[in-house]
Design a protein that fits this description.
Elements lengths: L9 H10 L3 H9 L16 H13 L2 H10 L7 H15 L2
Helix pairs in contact: 2-5, 3-4, 3-5, 4-5
Length: about 100
């Protein structure tokens, strides 16, 4: 997901995490109604923030980009429109 969103180097990842540190939790909260619920446990696996960051950036580029990124990562893209909107709203609200 992160690579499809353009995070191809550690510096890209670090810069995006710093830039979107406030938008990312908001994006996850806005996306929650459209995401599959975990079947085991309550905790997210390691790397989940990187996945959600990639998802937010791909969604910010539009639903088709997000759909492509989700499918490439082995996920369904049924709610790409809603997830992309959640990404754009979170990014706009917290853009600095």
């Amino acid at each position: 997901m992160a690579i499809r969103a353009g995070l191809t180097a550690v510096a890209d990842l670090k810069g995006s995490l710093e830039k979107y540190e406030k938008a990312l939790p908001d994006h996850i909260a806005r996306s929650n109604p459209y995401l599959a619920k975990p079947t085991v446990g309550r905790y997210l696996p390691r790397g989940a923030c990187v996945f959600f960051l990639g998802m937010m950036l791909a969604g910010g580029a539009g639903p088709s980009m997000l759909s492509e990124a989700l499918r490439a990562a082995g996920h369904e893209a049924a709610n790409a429109e809603e997830l992309a909107l959640a990404a754009r709203e979170a990014m706009a609200k917290h853009w600095s």
